[in-house]
Amino acid sequence: MKSLITDVLTKSAGLPKDEVERLLEIPPSSELGDYAFPCFALSKQLKKSPSDIARELVTKISSNLDDIRHFSDVKAAGPYVNFFMNKSEVARKVVSEVLKLKEKYGREAENKGKTIVMDLSSPNIAKPFGIGHLRSTIIGESVCRTHEFLGGKAVRINYLGDWGTQFGKLIFGFKKWGSMEELKKDPIVHLLKIYVEANKEDYEDGGRAYFRKLEEGDKECLKLWKLFRELSLKEFDKIYSLLGSKFDLVSGESFYNKAAKEAVNELKKKNLLVESEDALIVDLKNEGLGAVLIQKKDGAALYVTRDIAAAIDRHKKFKADILMYEVGQEQALHFKQLFRVLELMGFFWAKNCVHIKHGLYLDSDGKKFATRKGKVVFMSDITDETISLAKNEIKSRFPELKNKELEERAKKIGMAAIIYGDLKNYRENDMVFDLDRFIKFEGNTGPYLQYSYARASSILRKAGDGKAKKSKGKLIISNIEKSEFALIKFIDSFKDIVSKAHNSLDPSIIANYSYDLAKSFNDFYQECQVIGSDCEGFRLSLVGAFRIVMKNSLWLLGIQAIEEM
Ligand code: ARG
């Protein structure tokens, strides 16, 4: 719809397209039309009053009959040109386009040939999968999907925190207090307990000695480390399987052990390192970025050193146009330092690296999130609780549902609750994690979106495939109800929304849109009879169009659509 107006204004009135797009508004009330073009900005340039300009524009536009087929009226109102759409023309155009393109509706090719490499999830082995890692998995995935929806390629890398002095401590501790049996039963819990103990000051030397052994490739140490890594990953995979997360590469800091040493040499060669208290740093103090510790006294490389090596590798291996990192806000300085060091090393692409930040999860009392069981949050507690809450909701609606179906549905609904509960907030804001609210089938929740989708599917099922198909050819509509047109407008704005979300790397734009779309569909369904009405053909097509756009929106968020709910 917007494009119709942009076309008219560029063609009939000779205004530049970007400017029209930027200025076009949706008026606060429908009495003022469906769109309004404000003329203030042109006033200076044309040396005329905005209302004179508005009047002249209307004359120009109206003289071109072909262009105004889609409008019922174009009027000047003070400094604005108000556009009233010819609702049935527009409805026909929008609905038939969606039904023609199906899942391809809204897909564009603007990112064709463009590769992003996304660092997402990236939990630390031998530790619980954190809330931050959950946010990273969810947000990173949605940004990737949006990029792909617009024709680009996304490489997903899970970069495990699997190297560093802490593993020396862990091996030392495991040899002292560990039990193979407990390790295999509940690896993360067992390793966490050992880690807490081994972190005490008394054991510092022991930890350091074992890390040195590990770095030197000691067989026994490596074997234990490998086992810790494997068992941790198995735990993490449970979460990934629930969320449906897939990675192109499960990498980790350990992959860049050797390359980090090469990076140190490279930095030396480029004269970027200075000695400070026996360690090596890149001094960014006069840029306000502090000292970047690259190599410790004992020769050990650091988190940032490995990240330097990993970035260089990613750029080369995947011919990446943009390296993205979906990581918590608290690492903002780290990424600023990383990108700046890469730039100083002469990598032109460092300018295209992006840290996509997220805020914290908070409890309803505003404190940092913790589970009922204690200070450490175990993701499995959260997912178990979510799924069991979902089961209760489903059971109260479908007491007869078979167990297997109940399980399946509860998983999909539970994950939708978590994913949407997260994505509806602007990612950089801290957000309140409120499961009881997230899981509700009504209100601004993931399950509500799934429910609306399922409802559309059920209407189409009831009408029977044949009917829906037959009606496709004749989208004849005489009178469009208000709620019908509101829904059409939402469907029509899908492309704009995707492009906005993509440009600002902000999935909350799609999430909130999906909610508005679902709400508008439910308003329509309340007001307008579909099956058996005079307009059955058109309305079934509209339900079909809604269903397609909703499915695409859910896909962009990483939420599974459910046919029956
Ligand atoms: N493992 C890190 C953590 O949990 C996150 C890693 C993010 N990715 C990166 N390339 N630094 O804090």
**Straight-line N-to-C gap:** 33 Å
Strand order of the largest sheet: 6-5-4-10-11
Structure annotation, total helices: 23
Number of strands: 13
CATH T-level topology of the domain at 379-557: Isoleucyl-tRNA Synthetase, Domain 1
Q: Find the CATH superfamily of the domain at 379-557.
A: Isoleucyl-tRNA Synthetase, Domain 1
CATH architecture of the domain at 379-557: Orthogonal Bundle
Q: Which CATH class of the domain at 379-557? A: Mainly Alpha
> Can you summarize the main beta sheet?
5 strands, parallel
As a percent range, the share of helical residues equals 55-70%
**Strand percentage:** 5-15%
What's the gyration radius in Å? Answer: 28 Å
User: Which descriptor suits the 3D outline?
Assistant: globular
pLDDT averaged residue by residue: 93
